[in-house]
Amino acid sequence: MPVILIVPIGEVKNTILETVSNFVGVYYSRFGLSTRILPEIPVEPFSRAFNPIRGQYLGRVFLPTLASLRKKVGGKAVLGITGLDLYEEGLNFIFGLANPSLKAAIISLHRLRPEFYGEEPDEELLKERAIKEAMHELGHVFGLGHCPDPRCVMHFSNSILDTDLKSPLYCSTCAEKLSKNLEVLV
Hints:
Elements: E1 3-9, H1 14-28, E2 34-37, E3 50-51, E4 56-58, H2 62-73, E5 77-82, E6 86-87, E7 96-99, E8 104-108, H3 123-141, H4 160-165, H5 172-185
Parallel strand pairs: 1-2, 1-5, 4-6, 5-8
Antiparallel strand pairs: 3-4, 7-8
Helix pairs in contact: 1-3
């Protein structure tokens, strides 16, 4: 069965990895895809991605390494999950990033944590947000663009409020596109 690989980059709690893997696995099983969590990749090889002025890591630097791992292991797609704070040029931060041609994506838990916003730690809320970002970036990997529906998981999140508002699922329009795209890919 074709597989979506889930890869922790740096230390990521098993409960987060398992929750994301289970949700993604259940959803994508309808397309004949399963999930598999791979061993942690250390952060050190990505030190060139670190911008000391910003105190953040350039997200795109992670994707080629994830794509190489995907090819080596034989996955259909790969999703990196990290606690590092990520950014892209022209943006203050990113919750995640995907490259459809590499079939690779990464999400950052850093700004998904309630404590980042001065709130009490809440692992259930963190899991919910991580699922949404994972589903969003995997949607991009499988050819979906941003959706105008604020409840659709493919809606662009400008802030954590947008992430909290949206569902972890694709709207009917995006789900239909995804189904067509995956018929070709799987």
